[in-house]
Write a structure and sequence with these properties.
Elements (H helix, E strand, L loop, with lengths): L1 H16 L7 E3 L13 E7 L17 E7 L2 E5 L1
Parallel strand pairs: 1-4
Antiparallel strand pairs: 2-3, 3-4
């Protein structure tokens, strides 16, 4: 259990250092919902394979990115 907590802590530190902070909401988009991205202001994004201890998307058409965006002046994370 300690190893899992340490891996999560490393991932959190990495994302915080990259500026992925302050989000009040997280949204997981499924197939067919990708156009939602066109309705938000993307602040930054990072590929899952760059995030330590983070699973990589294996679905052929999924981009596999964590996105920090704003909607109506609120920060959100989008997967």
């Amino acid at each position: 259990m300690d190893q899992i907590i340490e891996k999560i802590s490393q991932t959190v530190r990495f994302l915080e250092e990259k500026g992925f902070t302050g989000a009040s909401t997280a949204i997981v988009l499924g197939t067919g919902l990708g156009s939602f991205i066109d309705r938000v202001e993307v602040v930054q994004q990072i590929s899952y394979n760059e995030i330590p201890h983070f699973p990589t998307s294996t679905v052929e058409f999924h981009k596999g990115k964590l996105i920090l965006a704003t909607v109506e002046n609120r920060k959100i994370l989008i997967m």
